[in-house]
Amino acid sequence: MPTNIFDEQHELFRNTVRRFCENEIAPHVEEWRNNGEVPREIWRRMGEQGFIGFWADEEYGGAGLDFAYSVIMIEELCRVSASGLNSKYTVHNDIALPYINMLGTAEQKSKWMPKCCNGEHIVAIGMTEPGAGSDLAAIKTTAVRDGDDYVINGQKTFITNGHTCDLLVLACKTDTKAVPAYKGVSLIVIEDGTPGFVKNRKLQKIGLHDSDTAELFFEDCRVPVSNLLGEEGDGFKPMMRNLQQERLVACVGGIVTAEHLLDITVEYTKTRTAFGRPICSFQHNTFKIVEMATEIEMAKTFTYSLIEDYLSGMDITTKVSMAKWYNSELLNRIAYHCVQLHGGYGYMEEYEIGRAYQDVRMRTIAAGSTEIMKRIIGKRMGLGED
């Protein structure tokens, strides 16, 4: 698809990433899924190749590159079906680490970012709680100032990278009486091994088995005040601002995955025969494939126009919310029909399409559910509250 996003340097980067994905990731994806984890070594290898934190300043381990390089990483990871690694990678590279880069002091960034860029450290973001998902102003985890420390108590759940993280960017309440409530939200970095920071069980999901998701507990967890990102009570607005990029990441991953699933299904239907002819040649199947290809192309065009807008500095909140819910719902429809076109083999976990069918289900939930996206769009259209 023609686009103004990528130049020659981007494509050189893509060639390097593609070779790496084909040689060092693709052969191991099924093994990692079966083992329920991505080995640390691949993380370090990605860091060595300059695939992590490349948008950061050189003094902190990056190369000052733009968001289009993140798009390339997501595209290539999705094309080798590394859905679990892609989930872990995007949370680290495009969601959690940017908070340290955006809000951190020079001292904080010098301390944490180089190891996050070279693959030595993995970062998670602690937002969701058992009673607070999309309503981040309602979080209950507290951080009470006690001298030069914050004493943190509370719980987080559904935290990607939660079990393996070396650093956690934690959303918490430093002022429980703030009005409005969001003015009491702050962001604090917690290092693995801090007393009172408890990584509880690794959650058993229906898909993305190699992407660790955990419950986290904080029991009188003492963290230095120097670990505060930005100012006290100023954590909410950066989270709202960064959600544009988080949802754009989800949009790209969703549409590229849909495209990949259709590609492997088309190849399968050309070789699988019924009644002496390829199953793709039956009119119903031909029409279904054509419909899916059309929907993907239209959604992809919209998504990549949003990337251009985002790179130019435009506010894409409304449109990215549209693309987030639409792409994730489309991906689930594509996965459903691709399984159907594979017949009984599509229901087997040994087939890529069967594994993908499990993995994609989370996309209508993570980074803001379909329903929340529609609520945001409705409010921005002036349609009022529910």
User: CATH superfamily name of the largest domain?
Assistant: Butyryl-CoA Dehydrogenase, subunit A, domain 3
> Into which percent range does the helicity of residues fall?
40-55%
Give the overall pLDDT as a whole number.
95
Q: Could you spell the SSE succession in H and E letters?
A: HHHHHHEEEEEEEEHEEHHHH
User: Structural class of the secondary elements?
Assistant: alpha+beta
- Tell the overall outline: globular
Tell how many strands the DSSP assignment holds. 10
Query: How many structural units, i.e. domains?
Result: 3
Number of helices, where a helix is a run of at least 4 consecutive DSSP H or I residues: 11
Task: Enumerate the strands of the largest sheet in spatial order, edge to edge or round the barrel.
Answer: 1-4-5-8
Low-confidence stretches: none
As a whole number of angstroms, the C-alpha radius of gyration is: 21 Å
The largest β sheet comes out as: 4 strands, mixed
Distance between the termini: 39 Å
> What CATH first level of the largest domain would be assigned?
Mainly Alpha
CATH architecture of the largest domain: Up-down Bundle
Q: CATH topology of the largest domain, which one?
A: Butyryl-CoA Dehydrogenase, subunit A, domain 3
How large is the share of residues in beta strands?
15-25%
Summarize the structure in short:
The protein is an alpha+beta fold. The protein contains eleven helices and ten strands.
Description of the structure:
This protein is of the alpha+beta class and 386 residues long. The mean pLDDT is 95. The chain is 49% helix and 15% strand. The chain has helices spanning 8-25, 29-35, 40-48, 68-79, 83-103, 106-117, 236-271, 283-311, 317-342, 352-359, 370-380; strands at 123-126, 142-146, 149-160, 167-173, 185-191, 197-202, 213-224, 228-229, 273-274, 277-278. It has 11 helices and 10 strands. Helix 4 runs parallel beside helix 7 (236-271), helix 7 packs antiparallel against helix 8 (283-311) and helix 7 packs parallel to helix 9 (317-342). The protein folds into 3 domains: 8-121, Acyl-CoA dehydrogenase/oxidase, N-terminal domain (Butyryl-Coa Dehydrogenase, subunit A, domain 1, Orthogonal Bundle); 124-233, Butyryl-CoA Dehydrogenase, subunit A, domain 2 (Beta Barrel), CATH 2.40.110; 237-380, Butyryl-CoA Dehydrogenase, subunit A, domain 3. The chain has a 4-stranded mixed β-sheet, covered by helices on one side.
